[in-house]
Prior knowledge:
The chain is mainly alpha-helical. Helix content is 42%, strand content 9%. It has four helices and three strands. The protein is elongated and about 80 Å long. The mean pLDDT is 94. The site of zinc ion has 8 residues, from helix 2.
Amino acid sequence: MDNQELLDKMREEDDEWHKEIDKRVEQARRNYKGPHCCLTMDRGLVSDAHVLHYSAKYREYGIIIPKSTGCMLMDYCMFCGKKLPISVRDEWFEILEKEYGLESPCEEDKKKVPKEFLTDEWWQQRGL
Length: 128
Ligand SMILES: [Zn+2]
């Protein structure tokens, strides 16, 4: 086998390998069951944590604005286009005030906020 043949063979194997990877990625995408809208978002929230933001307690997806503390909320997933769930931020404050009498759950009453309100547990349980 001369060099050219060897190169061709390597390219072919490379192609096969890429096809195999694509197939597996495609399968993983199709089999993705949540908790987010798609696998790309799921992975992105971990690998691009400085860009993408998900707040479990408020159920909000956003893009972090560089050099600021701000975050631009997303209504639709920028990867798969699905509509993202509605934010439950207002309900978070409302329920804490009405049911627990906490008027400033982000400041003075912060320590009194029940544990389930720090994660997605509270809205999952209430079926929001
Ligand atoms: Zn998505």
